């Protein structure tokens, strides 16, 4: 381990699982146990970019949180990738060493007394955090259902593993195409959540359209916002807007952010570099304090309440509603 923030790991195993999906088992490069993680956590993976500049992407941990001998991630090779998944599939061969962050959790599982039944919805590669959640729920004896949706059986990762899991009876597989049985056709979220007992919680991750559908259905079935939990891994970020000036108060510098620019890129031009990771406003890495001005929030990381407070901004994608925005940089 190199530091509390950055861990050096080695790819111990690479395994194909489902169409265009690879599973990677990561172990500590020095043979030590890895830091503990909770269900829902992710790691930042440092990768070589196509231009030689390092890129950082987030991947959910999909192993058993009780096992600290390794971490595991599942990555879909996406034809529309911004570079991350392509770099993972090209670079992470067995034996390769790389740097990752310690686990961080923005998608925590609610456990303990009064937590209620959990409904896990994973769409496509968005199933990864649900596997860790299922391990934890099974271990704690909590009631849950695990609904995994995929385009077809050939696209489904983890299929054999889930079939052999100690919680296999709670796993329900759904397919948009070529469903082997009528029961495995597209998930009926309204029927599933309509039968939920009082106090139940919904957890969802997957493509944005899938997540929007599950969350809208949960709301229609009477689930309050505090019992609907989600994590985006890819979103369409609104681009463009009027130019504005960003003032980095602590540095005593300012810069104009043009219509098609980002705050992060503009700041880097004047020598102020803030770590940026997802570039979509979903990970919170670049969250920066706002001292003056009104942000134009375009992220999916902050809650509606946090956005309304206008105390922080994701500088990778958000902009300003006022001509001048003062940041604590």
Automatic annotation (TrEMBL):
Residues 242-329 form the 2Fe-2S ferredoxin-type domain. The keyword Protease does not apply. Pfam families: Fer2 (PF00111), NAD_binding_1 (PF00175). One of its GO terms (molecular function) is 2 iron, 2 sulfur cluster binding. Signal peptide: none annotated. PROSITE patterns: 2FE2S_FER_1 (PS00197), 2FE2S_FER_2 (PS51085), FAD_FR (PS51384). Keywords: 2Fe-2S, Flavoprotein, Iron, Iron-sulfur, Metal-binding, Oxidoreductase. CDD domains: fer2 (cd00207), PDR_like (cd06185). Residues 4-110 form the FAD-binding FR-type domain. It comes from the Bacteria. Gene3D superfamilies: 3.10.20.30, Nucleotide-binding domain of ferredoxin-NADP reductase (FNR) module, Translation factors. InterPro entries: 2Fe-2S_ferredoxin-like_sf, 2Fe-2S_ferredoxin-type, 2Fe2S_fd_BS, Beta-grasp_dom_sf, FAD-bd_FR_type, FNR_nucleotide-bd, MRET, OxRdtase_FAD/NAD-bd. SUPFAM superfamilies: 2Fe-2S ferredoxin-like, Ferredoxin reductase-like, C-terminal NADP-linked domain, Riboflavin synthase domain-like. Coiled coil: none annotated. The keyword Signal does not apply. This is Ferredoxin.
